[in-house]
Amino acid sequence: MATTSERPIVVGIDGSPEASRALAYAVRQAERESCSLLLVNAIHETVPVGPMLPLISAEPLADVGRQLLAEARDVVEQLSDGRVAVRLQEALGPAVEALAAAGARARLVVLGHRPTSLIGRMFTGSTTFGVVARATCPVVSVPPDRTPQDAALRVVAAVDGSPCSADVLARAFVAAEQRSARLEVVHCWRLHPFYSYLVDEWSVQEQWGTQAHGIIDRLVAEAAREHPGVPVECQVEYADVADTLVRRSSGADLLVMGRHGHGARGSRPVPAVLGSVTRTVLQHTHCPVEVVPPRSSTDTSLERREAARTIAAGTALDPSDVAAPVGGPPPGGTSP
Question: Where is the UspA domain positioned along the sequence (predicted)?
């Protein structure tokens, strides 16, 4: 198995302007991480060209794909002055499956997000949504209005207190350090309107704020130990999650958020589906969004065994140190 340092950054190439923006982002990130790029072009076995016309075979489309990959390789060499190594991969089949499979051996997948109409998403789906839902490595979605020259020296991390929050913070601190940027950690939640009629919303908000600050501050302090030079600020808002993250993405270099565990590839017999918050943020963000997948069951088992050894060694664990999800699954909370 390839080590982390040997794993490339995967970029989906289809000749679109969105793919060009993703490629420019990936080149810059490869320079930051001193790694190579794997450019992937995927085509279906057959493509319908009209309701009464025959299907086109994959062979002529493969020729086009090879040309697109060759042109993309030239762009990488030009943007990086030859400093970034490139490999090309032709894949036969759905783009989502090809890119998710390539991501299993990569450190990152970078895609350009192409906004489509509601009808278009219903019938064709979205490559970005599909890869984000299935990938086992982080996926970056580059929005259509993003230009390579944009640099705000600000990274935003969205956390909810769930186990995935530690991984999100780890990725966000590294991203901020690579860019010499400040890190803004955001946690938000709002009671569902239905429950606001049944309880004292002000009391709930005050209690939630106190609890959230304690949990988020502990998570941030733990992650900051390895990155003492990164300036960090925590923001806790009682507000709609998706709207807040989209607003916070304005003027940022990167927004890092987590994906909860129901989307892992092979984890269930039906296609993976992203949560409403993740979909909304990917669709409306003003900056690139990095979605961090949940840890695999193997990683979780290792953590549990380590915890068991700690207990066996006689170290007492304070139940208050175990952070329950903040603003997640409780009534009115919305998870990514």
Answer: 7-143, 154-293
| CA distances for 175 relative to 114, 180, 254, 311, angstroms | 24, 9, 8, 34
Give the mean pLDDT of 166-185: 96
Could you say which of 3.40.50.2300, 3.40.50.2000, 3.40.50.12370, 3.30.200.20 is the CATH number of the domain covering 150-336? 3.40.50.12370
Strands 289-292 and 37-43: unpaired
pTM assigned to the model? 0.78
For the chain, the average pLDDT equals 78
The CB density around residue 278, as the number of other CB atoms within 10 Å, is 26
Query: Can you tell me which residue has the tokens 């762009």?
Result: 75
Write down the domain spans for the chain. 1-149, 150-336
> What CA–CA distance (Å, rounded) separates 291 from 294?
10
CATH topology of domain 1-149: Rossmann fold (3.40.50)
Residue pLDDT, tens place only, 16-42:
999 999 999 999 999 999 999 999 999
